[in-house]
Amino acid sequence: YSSAASDVYKRQGLMLLLISGLSKGQYLDNLTYGLKLGALHSRVTNLPEMLIGRENNRQLFDITSKGVFGVEGGLFLNYKFPESRVAIQPELLFRYSGSEVNYNNETTGSSYKLGLRYSYLMLGGIYKVYPFLGLNIGIGAFYSKNLTPHAISYNSNERNGLYDTNFRQFYREGIVGKDDFNLSFSLGYELEDNFHFDLRYYLGVGDMIGNRVTSFQFLENTNRSSHLSLSVGYSFHNW
After folding, report:
1. Distance CA 194, CA 233 (A)
2. What is the share, in percent, of the chain residues with pLDDT greater than 70?
3. pTM
4. What is the 3-state secondary structure (H, E, C) of 142-177?
5. What gap in Å lies between CA 209 and CA 46, rounded to an integer?
6. CA gap 191, 197 in Å, rounded
7. Short-list 183, 72, 174, CA closest to 120
8. Exposure string (b/e) for 185-211, b if CB count within 10 Å is 16 or more?
């Protein structure tokens, strides 16, 4: 009796190991991991208003902001749920982005360019749906840690840039880049040979720039980021 019971227990143990192995194999077959790299265009809202305040006479000078080009890249994991067309894709990325402000006073002939370009470490994920083959649409969220909160450049034509160093330091002390939080919306396509392409829009939902009290009396307002990126990726493991 004990011998028969022992054989039953052994068979059950082997069956459990087999099922566990098959299950793990199924999960691994649905896992993709790889690298991605892309270019992006970014901008930040309300920068002129922050620099000059609401009470200044804008008729005496012209101050505008525009977007700048940057890069984004890093690691991703993609897990496709079995027997479905749905996947989740966590990502760990590096981003270099920002915005630019241009000031011009025709009366005095003075002009300057202020550049805000920050480096971020991003962590987030995308929920993806595959309506047809490798075509996918996704929505997600990302938290971005600002690694260079004082990364500001300043260039002017005043006395051939004689005072640029002083003003650059002044802006670096008065304007501080903060961490950013973005919602993301993507459209992509994954090829059978491991390459995939991704067009993505990031929408900032919080204030990404803070300022300190200075003699310029910067206006505290809400500065939101927006990014449009196009990236190419390579997967090291297929579904």
Report:
1. 8
2. 80
3. 0.81
4. EEEEECCCCCEEEEECHHHHCCHHHHHHHHHHHEEE
5. 10
6. 8
7. 72
8. ebebebeeeeebbbebebebeebbbeb
